Structures are given as structure tokens and as C-alpha cells.
Amino acid sequence: MDNNNFEMLSKIKSPEDLKMLKPEQLPTLCEEIRRKLILTVSENGGHLAPNLGVVELTVAMHYVFDCPRDSIVWDVGHQCYTHKMLTGRYDKIDTIRRTGGLSGFPRRYESPYDVFGAGHSSTSISAALGIAKAKQLSGDNSHTIAFIGDGSFTGGLAFEGMNNAGRLKRNFIVILNDNKMSISKNVGALSRHLTRIRVSPWYLNAKMDLERFLTKIPLVGRPFVIFLTNFKNGFKKKIYKTNMFENFGFHYYGPVDGHNLDSLITVLQAAKKVNRPVIIHAVTVKGKGYQFAEDDPKSFHGIGRFDIDTGEPLSHSDSYSDCFGDCLCGLAQQDSKICAITAAMTTGTGLSDFSSRFKDRFFDVGIAEEHAVTFGCGLASQGMTPVFAVYSSFLQRAYDQLVHDAAAQKLHLVLGVDRAGIVGEDGETHQGVFDVSILNTIPSTTIYSPCYFDDLRACINQAVNKEKGLTAVRYPRGSEPFRPDDFTHNGINFSVYGNPNASRLIVTYGRLFAQACKAKEMLSSVGKEVCILKLCRIKPIDPEAIRFASCFRRVHFFEEGMRSGGVGDTFESELVKLRFEGSYAITAIEDMFIPHSKDTEALHALKLDAEGMFDILRK
User: Class for domain 494-618, per CATH?
Assistant: First the structure.
């Protein structure tokens, strides 16, 4: 693989340069784009398979449409790397997901071509509809395109958008990137033949000319157009049966080969001429052009640095997700009522083994976090023990269901909150820093936040077998952090480490305990002693932990989450109730979003690592 020759791609500074190429040159450009994608992600990590699968689609869109006047709204946005390279950011693509570099997702602040930000799924159709309606109100006749994958179509918000978009009259196009499930069965020679006819310029022009001619005939013209339309639709239903998109009011094109540039350009040009909402169903191969990614698209969906020649990750160690999955399998082996739920994240949440060992008790509900929670509550109401494994940043989509369906009904639903805390390179939309503040507001909710794998196992067992209501166990991404040789647990609710007679106390929870231990060693080296109170159950806080902290002269709370509504605020209010007279301070995330960077860099900038704690406490 020649990783240095990008002669054609390097000259694309905007979509206008792309349009200067001849159609027969585009396959070469796509080949260069794929090589650049593989090289970049192998060095920076990121979303490889989704980006490789949409190269031709992205090139065709920018070749046909006039962006940024025409607006492309990406769903999730993890497949936008080619889009970024074609819109003036090729020279910066090597910085993607790095501190100060390009984001791995569309960001409005980054480019006028990123018309709407994304990071979570199923938002594109609703957002694009709002953009299209605003254009209509202002007299702007440009096109709006929502680009969405078949996985995102499992989210209810996508259908809410479709339900309203069918009312538009023109210039609204949804491109469905179908790389997994078969939404339409019409994949065959006849279907392809009819699709080619329907999108040909000759057919479209003849159809419009005939309609204009007939409508001018007095009395019989308009009824005859209606008759022909109904006859055509009836014939289509015999051949195509029907599909849900046309029932939503969309004009449907497809399936079309999502890697055939000629077909894609023809279909997109045809869609521009239709005066009603259009959906283009493009079938693609996830990971296209890199055999390892084609063979294993799940592993290469989001991946760290890897060896291009072998496809092997450059580093791997046991993760919290692995530990969670192993523990849940062990519990499920002993208790047939334990069920596992995921929202299209089986591998990411460590449930692959569970899904194969306990098929009848494993439920992948698609990208539908709201449904996952309420579905779990239904299971719980009948005596099952549902465990919903979900990323912290995705759990926030189900706040109403947590309140209304779980907590208010006192149902025993267990949440495995993965990727809790700073997650690094994925940036603002994926930082797991809101779940504590969200869950902290919900009555009758219990939250555990372990630091180490043995903590995590104990918390899961406690949550599944001993708690009664809504219970969350939150844990970070990655592997187990530093652990002092002389640390031992004092109990599942909290532990004390260090000299209890010191005048200063660090209070923290989760993996920040490891940073606090390092800070303790650093402070000891300059003659300052501290004690550490490690919380594991952070809601409700054990009253004994509060009483212990009230004996210190200075208490400093470090929290890898939002300060507003966080555990630090709760801890302070409990100290006040005990008439604590010492000084109290909180270091947490203030009113801000955390941009993409390595998690170590983010923690350092927030003064939530050992060096930051040392600097604060030394003063």
C-alpha cells in the first residue's frame, strides 16, 4: 500500500475542485481517499469501517450538490472523514481526534460545510427537516440532505422526523446508507431495471412533460393524471409490494449500489428534480476496501491504533467492559431471571459472551435507549432482573423513562453505565460526565462508582442481588488504573486510605481514587500528609462517611463529572447538616463541554489528575 501518493486528493481544496474532475477520474480519487483513511485511523484511532463504507456516497453527494449552499446533515457523524477531506480540511486530516485538531464528528464551529453537529444517532432527519423548513420560509430553494444509516433508523427519533418530513413539497432528500439489515426485499434484476428507468433523465423529463400537457386539457386532463398516477402506484405495489418510505410520503429510489459512482450520480441528479421528499436507498459494504475491516466491521467500527499490514491493535488489555461482561455471565449462570439489554452495543459493552451463552435472555433493541429502559421495566414488573448496559453519554437520552417508568414505579432495573467520565478523543458528545448529575436528581435511585475490577464485581453483585429499585453501576473506559500495594477495601460503600489523623482529607470516587493515591505520595514527599476517603456508593452517601469527613480541618472533593448536581455538592450539604466548621472545596467540571483530546490531557487540564491535585493541595 503506497501511503504517500495522494496526488489527486491533495489538490481538492473544496467541492468546486471535485466538480472539475471527469467522472472517469472519480474511482481513482476514491482509492486515494481509502488509503488516506486507513493510514490516518491506524495512527490516530477512530471510526474506520463506517468511513470506508461511504466513500463513493460522499464523493457523489459533493459532486452533484452545491455545498455549503446545499446542506448535508450527517447522522451520528462518525462517517464524515471523507466529507472533511473534500471540504478544505485534507491538510488537517492527520490531526483528527487529537488535541486542537479536527473533531471526529461534524462540528458547526469547525466548518460552514458542517451545517449541523452530531455524535448520537437518529437526529439527522429531524434536524434536516428544520433546516429545510427554515430555507422554505426564507425563500431559499437550495437542497437539504439527511444522511442516515440503517442502524440509526432503529431509533424512534428517525421515524418522528420521517412522519413530519412527508409534508414537505420539495428539495428534501434522505440518503439511507444500508450496510447491514435488509429494509427492502426488492433486490433483483427487475428491481434494478425499474430503478434505472425511474431515475433516467429521459423518463423524468417525459413524465413531467406529459403531466403538464394533460393538466392543460379542460375537464378530463386533471382526472386522467390522477388515474395514471393511481394506476402506476398500483402496478408498483404489485411489483414492489410496498415500502414504509412511500407510506411516509417519500418518493423512493433504490436499492442502488452505494459503491457505483455512475449509478449514484444519476440517482442524485434525478432526486434533485423531484418536487416532493425523496429517499435514496443505497446498499454499501461497511469497511469497503480494507479486507480486515470488511471481514470484521464490528471490531473496526471504532478502533484504536492498529497495524495496517495485520489489522491487529497495537495495544490491548482487559477493560472494565470485559470485567462487567464476565461478572454478569457468572451471575446469570446462577440465576435464570437475570437478563441483559443493549442498545446496539453488544461488543462495546462487553456483552458478546452473554449474547451467545444466554441467547434467550439477551436483548439487543437497536439504537433505542428510551425503549431499552421501558422494556427493561416491563421485564422487571414480571419478576425478571434486567441489566441494561449502556454508554454514559447515551443513557442521557432516556431520562424520562428512568424517572417515569423505573424509579417512580420502584422497579428493579440495573444500569451498567459504561464509559463513565472523560472518554477522550470522541469529544463533547461522548464524554460521560453527565450521568451522575442526571441520576442524582432521581428519587429512590442507588449509584455505585467503583475504581478497580474487584470493586466492580462486588458492585454488580450488590446491584443485581441485593438492591431493590433503580440501581446504576458506573465505570470508565479502558483498563484498571494504578493501585497502591497497601490499599485494602474497608467496605462496599466507602474505604479510607492513608493517615486518618492528618488534617486534610481528599474525597473522591471512581478511577480518580488512583490519581488521589499518586497525589498523596507526591504530597508526602514534600512533607504534607493527607488522608483519602474513597466513595464507592455515591448515592445515597453512607452517613458514616460523612461523619468521618467532618473530623478533618480541610476537605477537598475531586469529581470527574459536572459540579452542578454532582456528588461534591451533595457531600457538602451533608457536612453542613453536621455543622462542619472546617474548610471545604470542590474541583469538578464547571459549566462547559469537554473537547476532544486524550483523556489524560483532559484530566490534566481540569486539574483532576495527580499533578493537579498535588498543585491544589500543596497550596
Answer: alpha beta
